[in-house]
Design a protein that fits this description.
single chain, about 250 residues, Helix Hairpins, Heat Shock Protein 90, 2 domains, 5-stranded mixed beta sheet, 7 strands, about 20% strand
């Protein structure tokens, strides 16, 4: 006759061990995040110092060459990078960004313009369906562009030649009944497996050979701080779609 007492004891020991293992893994993960925060803060400080000199020289060059091609794009991107670095410096003591009314269509168009060389190089067809009658939201334009660029770059990388990149917007009713601006970015790439889809927004999770696993995690955090949501849907071998919902703002 089996010893029920011993079996119960073994079961409890196994449960305790699994619990300790899960706690240890969680602590390891938190330690990695803490170390990343310290490293990012140090790197951001040095980058920000270098950015001051770069910004100064670019401003001087643009003053002497008013018609310099893409000069405005360079200036805009330097300001965006500076905003990202400033955000990194707030990791140790994060605070809310100073939100203002921004135009999502303008941010999307600027992001797509920066992506044009990659799109043209792979003969990707770009389709824009801006159906939102109002594209105004309260937010940080640099942070939103960071999110859009992450999603757009991932979409282009997922596709081979002659793929189709579709970017669309529309106004819809949110889960709580409030009006939201929905942004959808769809590619005709290889798709994402269900097991990977469930982990997409986890820090350090990546399927790329040289990926950091931070792009989508940062994007998720940015959208959350904008009181919005981000979701992914995918069909293997057909397409992947990322949907962002943001509270619709007044014009």
């Amino acid at each position: 006759m089996p010893n029920v007492s011993n079996e119960t004891s073994d079961l409890k020991s196994s449960t305790t061990w699994n619990s300790k293992l899960a706690s240890a893994e969680k602590m390891q993960r938190l330690d990695r995040l803490a170390n990343l925060g310290m490293l990012s803060a140090g790197m951001a400080h040095e980058i920000k110092n270098g950015m001051v000199a770069i910004q100064t020289f670019v401003d001087l060059l643009l003053e002497k060459n008013q018609d310099a091609e893409l000069g405005g794009v360079v200036r805009h991107e330097l300001r965006r990078i500076n905003a990202i670095v400033t955000q990194m410096l707030r990791i140790a003591a994060p605070g809310h960004a100073a939100f203002k009314t921004v135009r999502v269509h303008e941010i999307l168009d600027h992001s797509l313009r920066l992506l044009q060389p990659q799109v043209s190089g792979k003969l990707i067809t770009l389709q824009k369906h801006y159906r939102a009658e109002s594209d105004a939201v309260r937010g940080d334009d640099a942070q939103l562009q960071q999110t859009f660029m992450n999603l757009l770059l991932n979409a282009v990388e997922a596709m081979g030649p002659n793929g189709t990149l579709t970017v669309g917007t529309e106004i819809a009713d949110g889960d709580n009944g409030a009006r939201v601006l929905q942004i959808q970015i769809r590619d005709t790439g290889v798709g994402i497996t269900p097991e990977n889809l469930a982990r997409l927004f986890e820090p350090f999770f990546t399927t790329k050979k040289n990926g950091t696993g931070l792009g989508l995690a940062i994007s998720h955090r940015i959208i959350h701080e904008h009181q919005g949501s981000i979701r992914a849907h995918s069909e293997i071998g057909k397409s992947s779609t990322f949907s962002i919902s943001l509270p619709a703002g007044a014009d």
